[in-house]
Amino acid sequence: MALVLQGGGSDPQCHFCAPAGAQVTLRVQGTAGVVRFASARYDGQELVPGAPVEEIRFVVKPGPKVLTAVYAFSLGARGRGQLCERGSEGELQVLEDDLRGDNEVRGHRICGV
Asked: I need a labelling partner for 46 at 20 to 30 A (CA). Which of 23, 37, 65, 77 fits?
């Protein structure tokens, strides 16, 4: 699975774009403490079935869809981290480098094209 997410480009409703039907793996990594996905929903589908996880996977749906993520930080409000896409060869693409423990809920609009 190659890296598929790209910046939203000229479409103001998209934070990221990817081919519809592509599988995406998102990973969080801490830059200050540990960060995990406490919960995540993509187009209404729960992606974290139980305890907090380091990675989530989903298939990109056509059109603009929202990924809502709640992050858990080991250092609470002082925690920091990055949201990355992980490819099949283990390569990482940083999508967002300012995850913060004092703002643990984020929404990302992903457009399937």
From this structure: 77
97 and 82 in contact (C-beta within 8 Å)?
Answer: yes
102 CA to centre of own chain: 18
Q: 76: which residues sit within 8 A by CB, 6+ positions away?
A: 101
pTM of the model: 0.91
pLDDT tens digit sequence for 23-73: 999 999 999 999 999 999 999 999 998 889 999 999 999 999 999 999 999
Percent of the chain scoring above 70 in pLDDT:
97
Q: Contact 109/68 with Cβ under 8 angstroms?
A: no
DSSP state of 61: P
In the chain, what are the domain boundaries?
A: 6-112
Cβ-based burial of 16 (10 A; exposed 0-12, middle 13-18, buried ≥19): buried
Query: How far is Cα 109 from Cα 99, in angstroms, rounded to an integer?
Result: 16
Identify any residues that bridge with 30 across adjacent strands, giving them in sequence order.
Answer: 81
